[in-house]
Amino acid sequence: MFGKLEEINSRPAPFQFYTADELWTDEHTSMEMLEYHLNESVDLSSRNKDFIDRSADWIVSHFRVDENTRIADFGCGPGLYTTLFAEKNADVTGIDFSERSIRYAKEVADQKGLDINYFQQNYLEFETENKFDLITMIFCDFCALSPSQRKTLLGKFHKFLKPGGSVLLDVHSLNTFDNREEVATYELNQLDNFWSPENYYGFLNIFKYDKEKITLDKYTIIEESRTRVVYNWLQYFSQDSLREEFEENGFKAEGFYSDVAGAAISPESPDIAIVAKKSDNT
Hints:
Layout: H1 2-8, H2 20-24, H3 27-38, H4 49-62, E1 70-74, H5 80-87, E2 91-96, H6 99-112, E3 116-120, E4 132-137, H7 147-160, E5 161-173, H8 174-178, E6 183-188, H9 190-193, E7 200-209, E8 214-223, E9 227-237, H10 239-247, E10 251-257, E11 271-278
Parallel strand pairs: 1-2, 1-4, 2-3, 4-5, 5-9
Antiparallel strand pairs: 5-11, 6-7, 7-8, 8-9, 10-11
Helix pairs in contact: 4-5
């Protein structure tokens, strides 16, 4: 028992383990995630409906989206943004790991008579011959990736964009990192049976990595018949570190905002949204 508790409370190296499939492909958990996505009043798997509507309106206006605009949304979930972009007559592609979310997004597109290209795939492995005017990645998905994964993804963005094409994505700021605290807790059926419909004990260890500006929410889920560990990593950024990462991968930062609805950036912003353009000389 002592050895098991030590293992549960052990601190891995930054981004040592990657378990996104546990969230997006598990039958029960993916259903829970979809329900959070579709809850219009909360900011959990996606932001609330009012924000999404304002955000989509700002994106359409800022990037002059019309029938000549080709957009790819990485981590599209159940199509909350792709649907709105398609309703503005854009040519839209959505990529997401979750089969359940993609199936729901396709059903919505069919009901609304929208022609949206959906791919159920890990976006780190996505390939296409299409070229896009705009690539979006919304709700701080970028933060969940390791430095090497982010480099891979930015390389794909660069390859997939038309000359002069843009990326819009958001990340958590250092303000949010500073407000995180290390915690170790456990409870029966943690998060209201989010991890399983059967009884389980859920252990949560939150670790902070001050030098790297990373946090880890490490969930150990102990059921009668199995034990799982899920690692939710988050990288935090300053404007300078975010700009540097994009510039190292062939982009020029064109603007910073406090969110993807175009709100002005401030020193207190919990998040940072970046608009970056594919550099002319790359």
